[in-house]
Amino acid sequence: MKKIFSILLLTAFTLGAFAQFEGTIAFSKKTAYDTINYLYYIKGDKVRIDELNSKTGKVEGTFLIDLKAGTMTSLSHERKMYLEQKTPAPSKPAGECKVEKTKNTKTINGYKCVEYKVTNSTENTIVSHWVAAGKFNFFSKMLKVLNRKDKFSVYFQQIPGMDGMFPMYSTLSAMDGKVTETMDATKVEKKAVDAGLFSIPAGYTKFDK
Questions:
Q1: By three-state DSSP, how is residue 139 classified?
Q2: Cβ neighbours of residue 94 under 8 Å, at least 6 residues apart?
Q3: Per-position DSSP letters for 86-108, written without gaps between them
Q4: pLDDT at residue 194 is higher than 70
Q5: Over the stretch 46-95, which tens digit does the pLDDT of each residue have?
Q6: What's the distance, CA 29 to chain centroid?
Q7: Pairing mode of beta strands 125-133, 111-120
Q8: In whole angstroms, what is the distance from residue 97 CA to residue 90 CA?
Q9: For residues 59 and 75, is the Cβ–Cβ distance under 8 A?
Q10: Considering only CA atoms, which of 63, 52, 57 is closest in space to residue 143?
């Protein structure tokens, strides 16, 4: 009985150790001219990203991402249409990106975060990511599907060993240290997410280019 109990306990611990984060993450991107708010829904291999109006909170657009299939679909709620999009080619920085894991730490949204600094003198850019560990397996996979060209995404992908990690707070600055943009996870909530959120809504028609 003791042996069986030990096996069951070890199995439960192992499953827990590899469990993917499920829940929501509210995000805010700020520049000197604008603020864009996002809400991520994560469940298994599915991610939904809602872009919210910074003043009204209304959902203006949505991305549905299937990490297993490597596909993404954008939704236009105003026009009630959807568009299946191909993953663009990866964007590579000019020059060399130097990655430094600093000794700086701070707690954000209840997670201990370590600062990783990515410096590229050719692009006159420094991006600091305050990274948390917490079974955020979706994030690195999501970046590879989206292949966005913004420096927050591109520079994060230059950091080795980021599987399961998530940047709770990031800053973009020139080499003089002046911050021009920030990305901030304002709320992280673990909870069950409705699987229906990752489906194309009824009544939406496909947009063909």
A1: helix
A2: 120, 122, 123
A3: PPPPPP--SS--EEEEEEEEEEE
A4: yes
A5: 999 999 987 888 999 999 999 999 999 999 999 999 999 988 888 889 99
A6: 12
A7: antiparallel
A8: 15
A9: no
A10: 63
